[in-house]
Amino acid sequence: METNKLILDGNIVASSIKADLVPRIAKLIGRGITPCLATILVGNDPASATYVRMKVNACKKLGIESRRIVLAEDTTTEQLIQTIQQLNEDITVHGILLQHPVPEQIDERAAFEAIQLHKDVDGVTTLGFAQNAFSLAAFPSCTPAAIIAILDFYNIQIEGKHAVIIGRSPILGKPVSLMLLNRNATVTICHSKTQNLEEIVKLGNIVVAAVGKPKFIKGSWIKAGAIVMDAGYNEGNIGDVDYEACLIKASAITPVPAGVGPVTIATLLKHTVDSAENSFFSIL
């Protein structure tokens, strides 16, 4: 590995975020409030179960209460929404996370929309998306927020840069595009219908890969000196970026694993603590 390459270590960023949370959590507990994240898993998808377990363990290490709810594979939309409503009404729950994906019979969007805005710590509601587009107070989607957190931690300039986003999902590609735009980047969003993708990616000072395809972004696509943010995670601990090839061109790059992933989880914990603090001050 060349010594002039900056490896954007997500574990370091995540540790910094968690360290900042420790005194805040202690202060809340001293006031009689334990931050609580409720995670909902519908069905038996092994990868989803693993992701939920990681989040539960991360909560426990910081003293955040984790309420794990597992629903059957044949759960209906109505049953899922009823569970969400119960959590909405529970004042001891500060954040609600519905693990994606849900079984096909469920209207996932309807379920997401049932989560109250102040408990939407994963940033999945359309109202939360809209508020973030206008730089208002709702919680942003965690992975986009993690990408911004990494750039800020390493003092990488966003303003005035051309950011190319590959992917337009409602919880990753679209929100990170708006967050970068709000930080005065010039943003190009690419997707499955984009023509001349390789040439467009070559224009990016900051490249965000969010397509869910292993090693999709080739080294030859990367502009010399670009910042490469790999938000993908595929089977075998492989990102959306051909890491070794892109490392040759990039000035900074996130690895997979230990890049965006750990910061995403740390961001979820931060949002839960933020929500708990908001709930405390709202009752004063």
Automatic annotation (TrEMBL):
Keyword Oxidoreductase recorded: yes
Record's catalysed reaction(s): (6R)-5,10-methenyltetrahydrofolate + H2O = (6R)-10-formyltetrahydrofolate + H(+); (6R)-5,10-methylene-5,6,7,8-tetrahydrofolate + NADP(+) = (6R)-5,10-methenyltetrahydrofolate + NADPH
One CC-aspect GO term: cytosol
Pathway, per record: One-carbon metabolism; tetrahydrofolate interconversion
Chain ranges of the Tetrahydrofolate dehydrogenase/cyclohydrolase NAD(P)-binding domain: 141-278
SUPFAM superfamilies listed in its UniProt record: Aminoacid dehydrogenase-like, N-terminal domain (SSF53223), NAD(P)-binding Rossmann-fold domains (SSF51735)
HAMAP family for this protein: THF_DHG_CYH (MF_01576)
Identification of the protein by name: Bifunctional protein FolD
Species this chain originates from: Paenibacillus psychroresistens
